[in-house]
Amino acid sequence: MSGLASARSGSEQASGIDARSLYQRILGADFERLPASLRALHARDGVRRYAGEAEASRGAGWLSRLCGGIAGLPPAHAGAIEVEIDAGRHGETWIRRFGHGAMRSRLRERDGLIHERLGPMAFAFALELVDDGVIWRLRSVRALGVALPLSWFDGMRAHEFERDGRYRFDVRAALPGIGLLVHYRGWLTIGD
After folding, report:
1. CB neighbours of 67 closer than 8 A, spacing ≥ 6?
2. Which of 109, 163, 178, 182 has its CA 20 to 30 A from that of 41?
3. What pLDDT, on a 0 to 100 scale, did the predictor assign at position 4?
4. What is the distance between the alpha carbons of residues 154 and 87, in angstroms, rounded to a whole number?
5. Residue 56: which CATH number?
6. How far apart are CA 57 and CA 142, in angstroms?
7. Spatial CB neighbours of 140, under 8 Å, sequence gap ≥ 6
8. Three-class SS string for the chain?
9. How far apart are CA 164 and CA 162, in angstroms?
């Protein structure tokens, strides 16, 4: 199961108001191909909270710490995590709580891509379906509105997947010359 989600047809977005979830709008009929835990997480609207476990590691260099701090990346952590998602027709706000630290981002759809704002950074991702879930493929990056070379972000990876019936995530960001910014991975209990 593979393929990049592309821009939806004009008729799907013509009204400007779409009751479907962010992932449903981007993936269209392919949304049904996602594993059950991913469909459950990404089909809901309103405010939802999920609990689980995660490990987060941060780069040790001062430039890595500076970049991570500016972007609001999570602190090093091993243990409980809580994720709050406020989803509506205009996008989603995610707050990921790693112990005493939190990472907040805003996601919305434009031109068939997920646009994520994280502090002064803005990212655009295509969603690629894979056997166990979805990989986020970086398409553009901006800092304070200025476009940055995509090649600087070759070390960015994000994968949402299901294993043993459980929703899992694995996200890594590194920059050339700076090294690791953050690597966090874990699982969430989605429930019904």
Report:
1. 175, 178, 181
2. 182
3. 45
4. 29
5. 2.40.128
6. 24
7. 123, 124, 147, 150
8. CCEECCCCCHHHHCCCCCCCCHHHHHHHHHHHHCCHHHHHHHCCCEEEEEEEEEEEEECCCHHHHHHHHHHCCCCCEEEEEEEEEEEECCEEEEEEEECCEEEEEEEEEECCEEEEEECCEEEEEEEEEECCEEEEEEEEEEECCEEECHHHHCCCEEEEEEECCEEEEEEEEEECCCEEEEEEEEEEECCC
9. 7
Q: Are 162 and 36 in contact (CB under 8 A)?
A: yes
Contact 178, 73 (CB under 8 A): no
pLDDT given at position 42: 94
Successive 10-residue mean pLDDT values, the chain, 192 residues: 41 46 92 94 92 94 90 90 92 92 93 94 95 95 93 93 95 94 95 69
Parent domain of 121: 3-189
Question: Residue 148: how many CB atoms within 10 A of its CB?
Answer: 14
Q: How many domains does the chain have?
A: 1
Q: 161 is written with which tokens?
A: 């997947």
